[in-house]
Each structure stands twice: as C-alpha cells, then as structure tokens.
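Researcher: Go.
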Amino acid sequence: MSRFHAVREAPGLISLTLACLPLVAGRSDAQGTPAIEWMGGGHTGVNSAAISPDGQTIATGSAYDETIKLWRTTDGVLLRTLAAHFAGVQSVAFSPDGQFVASGADVAFGSGEDHVKLWRVSDGELVRTFSGASAICSSVAFSPDGTLLAAAKGFDIEVFRVSDGALLGTLTGHDWFVFSLAFHPSGQVLASASGDHTIKLWRLSDGALLRTLTGHSFFVSSVAFSPDGQKLVSGSYDTTVKVWSAVTGALLRTLTGHTDAVYGVAFSPDSRKIASAGGEHTIRIWNASNGELQRLLSDPRAGFYSGVAFLPDGRRLLSGGFDGHARLWNLDNDAHVGELGGRPGSSLLRTIGHHAAPVTSVEFAPVGGTFASGSKDLTAKIWNAADGTELRALVGPIDIINSVAYSPDGSMLAGAVGSPPPDTRDTRIFLWDVATGEILRTMPGHPDGTTCVDLSPDGQLVASGGRDSTVKLWRTSDGMLLRTMTGQSGGITDVEFAPDGLTIASSGHSGKVFFRRVSDGVQIGTITSVNGIVSIAYSSDGTKLVTGESAYGDNVRLWTAPAGTLVRTFAGHPDGFVQAVAFDPDDLSVVSGSGFSRDIRFWRVSDGALLQTYDKETGWGLDPQFSISFSPGGGATFGYGRNDATVVVATSPF
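Model: Structure:
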C-alpha cells in the first residue's frame, strides 16, 4: 500500500543528463574557506559516482569518509568537498539542469540529522535538507524535469518537491531495503530495486503500484531505464543482469558472466549499450539488443566497482571503486573482450583521486618546489607545490605512513611507518629519493611502530620517535643507529630538530616535551602540560615552541625553548583536540588544526588574538587526522592534510 498525495505527473521528456554549470578550479574566498590554490587526494572508498549532464564534472560519495567530492572530468582535478553528513554517503545524483547535487546517507544514530541533502554545484553550499523518515537512504534520483526528488529510505521510497523540500508522499510495499531508484524518461513512472529480490514500478501521479518484476534470486542492487524508455535493466547479487520491457514488464533476457555480485548498471545515451559493474573487479559492456558481451574492463586495484555511468558522449564510462578511486574508461577504441584496463593500450583513461586513506603528514620541501604527503594508504606522494600535479608515488611500506620529512636540499624524503599494536605490520623508517622515487635505504625503526620522523638541518641525521617512548638518532648516509634516548612515557607523538640542529624536541601523550642535545643526548629542558601533547613546532629562530594538545579548549600553547617557560595559552579549539601546529615563516602567527573539530585557526603570536577560523574544506570523516605545513621563504602559503584523504595548498592573509 502507498501513502501518497499531491504528486503531479512529471511530464518532462528531458534526459537526466543535460547541462551543468561549470566549476572553476582555483582560489576560493568563501567565508570560512581558505583561499585554495589546489586540492588533491581522494576518498577512503567510493560508494556512488555520477556525471554532470554536460559531462564536465564528476560527483563521488563515500560511506567511509562521509563526504561528496566534485572533480573536473578533463583532468581529474578535485574541485571541492561537500561535507555535512554525519554518516556514510550512499548515493549522489545531479539535477537535470546540473545546478545541484543530491545525496543520501546512512543513519547516524544520535545525530538527529536527516539523511537527504541538496547542494549547489557552483559554490558547494548546502541548500536544503529533506526531512522524512529516519532510515538509511540508499539511493536518490531526480525526476527528468528536476521538480521531484525520490529517496530510498529503508523499505520505503519518499518523494519530495525540490523547490521547497516538501514531502509529497511515501511509496510502501517492498519487504526489504530499497537499494536503487530510477525515473522513466517520461517522468511518470519510478522504478525501485530491493533486497526482497524484486523491482517495482510506481505511477507518480497517484503513487499506485503498476507491477512487480520478479526473477532475481538475491538482492537487486541497481536499476536503470534506457533513455528511449523502452527497456529497464537490473543488476543483482545473484551475479546476473536482467533486461526487461519497460512497457509490459516482460523479462527480455538474462546476461550472465559476472562471478560476483553486480553492484551497478547503466544504459548508454543511445540506449544501445549496457554497462554492469561487478564485485569481481570487472565492468562488462553488453549489446542491449541481443545481450552480446562487447567488452570486459578490469583494474584489480579497484577491489570491486560500486557503480557505473556513461558520459553524455557515450564514448566514455565512469566507475566508482572500493579502493577510493573513480575511474574513466574509453569505449571508443579497438579494445576487445578480455582486455584489462590499466595495461599499455588499455581503455583506462584516468584514475581519479590520489590518496585513498587519511593523510597523516604533509611538508613543503625547503627548496625545489615540491610538497609531500604521507597517508594511511601506505604511500607517500610528491606533488608540484605550485599547481598540485602529482609527480610520483613513493611506495615500499606495508603499513601506514605516520610522518614525512624532507632533507634540507629537498632531494630526500623520510617516512615513519607503523600501525598501533596489534595491527603493526611494519616499523621501518624509509628514505626515498624524491626525484626518482627510489628507496635509498631503510632503518628498523621502533617496536610497535615508528610514529614520527625529522631530518636535521644539515641532512646528516634522522630523528625518530616511537610508541616505545624512545627517541632514536640515525645517520642518513648508511642508516646506522647512533643513539637511543629514553625517559619519556606514553609514546612519542612528534619529534623536531631545532633550526640550528643542536637540539631535538620530542613530545608525548604524557604531556611532556623533552629538549635534548644532539651531540650527546643529554636532556637540557622540559615542558610540562596537564594534557597530552600531540604536535610541536619550533619558531624560525628556535627560541620558542608551540604545542598542540589533546584536550578540549586551551589546547594551543606557546613556550620558550629549551627552558620550557609558558609564554601564552591560546584559546585553541574548544570542540576538539589539536593535531597540528606550525609557525608561519615570519613567526608572526601560529596556525593550528584539528581533525576532531574540523577547523583551522590562525593566532597572532604577539598577543594570542584569534585572527581567523576556517571551517570549510578543512576535513571530515570518521578517523580524525590533521597535519599542516607552511611554505618556506616567507608569505602565507600553507598546506594541510585531512582525514578524508585530501591534501590542500592555500594562502591566508595572516
């Protein structure tokens, strides 16, 4: 039975892929947003992907980092992140005029939020939240004329008026979760695919159930109408793709070949091809008329594909992947069945996104114009600091990278590796050649994982800290361990050489910073705080140290070094622990960042005044993580890494 009222017919014959307002990459001056020069990175998993009606912009949604990201199709540049869901994003869809993106998310228990949202593409602003039943939203779909938005909410479907967010009606009748929705091109019929093994067709004028299509033997995960309105395609966990008559509901054919669940299906714009995405990391392209398999696309790195969508030209295909990357495929070449994407001459045009897990550490090269990031995806990336071009990926660790640091000439990058016990798989310290990506050498690191690393100003030494609460000093030329320094407790969170290279500062969860002489390891000063200290940074003259602390409020402090006298307490981040601090190159301001409160704050050193709070494009997700670095040589260019797998380079007026 359907609870439905006041839904007029949606007679528009316009396809769901029309025109989209173009996005312009570059600086943003929106309130609360830093002046962004470029963004890179990615998702920690892609659950849904959609292409704008003009094919110029890609939207991806993640259940893992809880964000929607917008990318430029031509070069894969990340344009902006849409973040306001407090739960995993399950579905994204562009409006027919391309001006908006709708998203549906999981239920966030205790958050009190609604799970269907509308965003403006041009500036990323949240326009509207649609209020309805508190249930997981697995799918959202716009009517062809853009006046209605359908949302799969648990076992039911809610239909909203886009203009004011009014709930017009609820379609009920499925016996399990609804996973996918699709409007007929006429706008008069809505198809729903469910875990009850069925597809239902609903009349929008009065909410009547027109027919139920049966034949799948397991969850039906995806459904799509052909643009000519004649056919309906469905994909199922039973590994099959079925093609139905959209007019009579008759089963026309069953397409077999997938060896795992089918998670997404789509028709090409000319209705002649069908694409299906499978859990066995393959995408299959079928002839819609006779069911012949025309092409097999595969990139094993994807894990499984969460969905597919044709671009408006019908010659390219978009897919979302479990590995956190969207991919663009070329269908207009001489490829044949059995071709593996990603090999020379293959159909894989572009992998969209870079990091696929939280970014743990970032740093500008002292010279050479590069920017480095380390990630929980087991890689470090080297970027062109000016434009964000990824220059190379540094690989080798078999565990997360917790910290990265450049040598003074920018030619070498050090990385500290290791998850917390009992998941520690690698504890080494890596030294990479930045120009080639070659591993120069490794050092054993610390038991239970190496948490932080820094290179001396002359490039001859590496200092490291670990969960074993020790600080170790290594020689870069041959990796020899020179000294192990003990005395701290609770694990080492950060280690920094003083600018003159004569002193090492190390912080820990115990709330202490130890200053030690490099020459002999003797302790020459101590900072004692009531909170655990997560991050430290020296001023450029080495006379002061700023600390970021694991507490609510009053969590950014300024101290003399190495005496450890408290100079000033900044108001800090009242709603979250501070995970990153840094001085600007002129020592006039301090910047602090928190993955918990998801903001960046600038403070004036002279009097502690709060200069600016940035709370947009500053991070989101389930795994709070934050890192920050200033560009050398003066000015206000800074970079930061976020827990939603993203790196950003921006400028600030302070």
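Model: The chain has two domains: 3-352, 359-651.
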